[in-house]
Give the backbone structure.
Amino acid sequence: MPEQNVPENVVLVGKKPPTSYVLAVITQFSNGRPEVVLKARGKNISKAVDVAEIVKRRFIHAIKTKNIEIGTEERVLENGTKVNVSTISITLSK
């Protein structure tokens, strides 16, 4: 997922605490976006699921999970070896 071509309604979940991503999702919906997509890779997948559930259960009860996509990306490490990394994309909508 190259960061320079990320649409505005996509939140990339990474190393920050979940509350940072919850705030990002809430901000997107407050700005009038009908859908927000959470994307994560590897060990951050569980954090993306946590963010989606926190938004739905604690803040915006009208949010629905529209779509969940899972997949695998092949990444090349610095030493040239290739590894497969799991990915998830969770689409939330009003």
Notes: The first strand starts at residue 10 and ends at 12. Helices lie at 18-30, 45-59. Residues 45-59 form the longest helix (15 residues).
